[in-house]
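TOKENISED FOLD:
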Amino acid sequence: MNKALFYILFFLISFSSFSQVREFGFFAGGTYYTGELNRTHMSQVDYALGAIFKKDFVNDRISLRFQLMYNSVKGSDYKTGLPAQVKRNLAFRSTVLEFGPVFEIDFFTFKPGQSNPEEASFGTPYFLLGVNYMKMNPKAQYNGEWLELQPLMTEGQDKPYSLNQIVIPFGLGIKVNFSPNTVLAIEYGIRKTFTDYLDDVSGVYANPSELSSLSADLADRTNYGELYQPEGINGTSYGLQRGNPTDKDWYSAFGVILTYEFRNKSTCPSW
């Protein structure tokens, strides 16, 4: 949570002199991931915080916003309740820092603070689409500590996967004039990623003899029980499917946005 506040404060300071800002606001809500460790939408939800700067783009129905999102995602085989996943017994959590431009396309003409129904609607649904930068950092709990998984190369990779990725946010929202200077919105956005390692699970179980003892312990946490033994090579899980590399990970964020419109578009307030 302290990191979330730091990133949001850094974002505000960096853009405090952005001269064409029309609206500034905050996002607060929840986020969840879908991938190998969670296939159910709106399940294993964690928090999401954000800051937004917005300006008109092309016309009154299309605006461009710059956003900084701090998401916390998590997944657990055990919490799915599915026997095969409970047996696999993997879990992770990761902070996801997301930054970049997003277009808002209003269904109807909408002007913040506009009360004259002949000139603009009181509210409107909108569609959002953008291209953002994402920084992730998957971790797993081991002996009471949360350890970073990427440096451990738990699937025997030749080199660590990148924690820096491109993500495509898209979704829907609805916004209304809350007061003469503020706009209230409810939004649901899906993030398409181009990585299958948000959860550190993608391919097959590596040969434990080629991993460090810590990597081997975190790579295979299978709960076989008393009557079952590993079915992979040499009596281990080696070679068995651990994830699905063709199915990339996704995450979604939903929540409330409250923005304030600056009447003087040429300046921003000092902080």
